[in-house]
Amino acid sequence: MSPIIRVAACLLAVSTAAVAEQPPRPVRVETVVFRPMQDAITYAGTVQARVQASLGFRVAGKVTERMVDIGNHVACGQILATLDPADARLAVEADMQSARAAEAEAVNARAEYARYLRLGRGSPAYIASEFDKRQAALDGAEARLAQAQRQLALAHDQLDYTVLRADADGVITGLSLEPGQVVAAGQTVISLAHTAETEIVVDVPENRLPDIRAADGMVIRLWSEPDKEIKGRVREIGALADPVSRTFAVKVTVLGQANEAVGLGMTAAVRFSRAAGPSVALLPAAAVVSASGVPSVWVLDAPAHRAVAHPVQVASWLGDGEVAISGGVSDGSQVVTAGAALLDATMPVSAWAGAVR
User: Fold this and answer.
1) What is the pTM of this model?
2) Second label for 181, Cα 20 to 30 Å away, from 39, 51, 139, 238?
3) pLDDT tens readout for residues 220-266
4) Are 333 and 32 in contact (CB under 8 A)?
5) Exposed e or buried b for every residue in 280-318, given b needs 16+ CB within 10 A?
6) SS3 label, residue 204
7) Helix-then-strand count for the chain, H and E
8) Which residues contact 215 (CB under 8 A, 6 or more apart)?
9) For residues 69 and 49, what is the distance between their CA atoms, to the nearest angstrom?
10) Any idea of the CA torsion for 219, 223, 224, 230, to the nearest 10 degrees?
11) Alpha-carbon dihedral sign for residues 349, 354, 356, 357
């Protein structure tokens, strides 16, 4: 054996021994689970209240007090603002006096009618035309009393309308009044978003509307809590496209008790899905590498502390950093998902047992 071959053999033996002595490198793995393939699309949307109420006073007047600010949570019936009640109180007092006068007139008309009625038709003093006059006077007095009472009730309502109350539990989203301001009847002064039912509004292009209508699964994830899944259902698909973006507004109602955790104005991702096609396994796209020009994944052989490259069939590349695998690996296999491009068949590896960040 020549000296050069002897040196090369020694170097190879040393290199092999060094590789064998290397401790296994921890790699992040994911277990392969095959499920029926789902056709899914995800859209970003904004949390809104289903009911956005524009509140205003039912009478005109001068604002004397405002009890809320933007962002305040209010309960049904809570006082939000008040108007100067002086004119309304004067109207109540005037109508009260009118009602008393009408009542006194009605009492007198009843007494006159009763006295004439006691005469009887057989009395020489009974005159039919006079009886008709007394009866007409009584009917008129009763009508004027009823009118005065209705007018008094209306005046009380007008006085009550000087106080603006919340019509439901909600959040104040808009204010356009200040103390001292004079407002007109029906003018919008406060915007109230009802919190009883919230929904996610997403903009969907027209070519995706059939997929939205056919979706049988729906998951909502808030960007503030991406690991928490919230159930929802499509409540409404817009009938008209937005003139600028040419998209349709799709409103998804949040179901269950999740309404309490969903804040108005939050951003959410809504995933619409439906079963379509054979079973596939979803893996991070970084798990797939090219081995001799063939898409492959590294499958962990735990007893041997090695990773073995397996050619796989890619069903589709998904837009959210995932890939759908239709074959090439068995269900339950552990696939390397991080650093796969740096592995080789001789590198000792083991599954990472630390926390996943």
Assistant:
1) 0.59
2) 51
3) 988 888 888 888 889 999 889 889 989 999 999 888 766 666 788 88
4) yes
5) bbbbeebbbbeeeeeebbbbbeeeebbbebbebebbeee
6) strand
7) 4, 23
8) 234, 272, 273, 274
9) 18
10) -10
11) negative
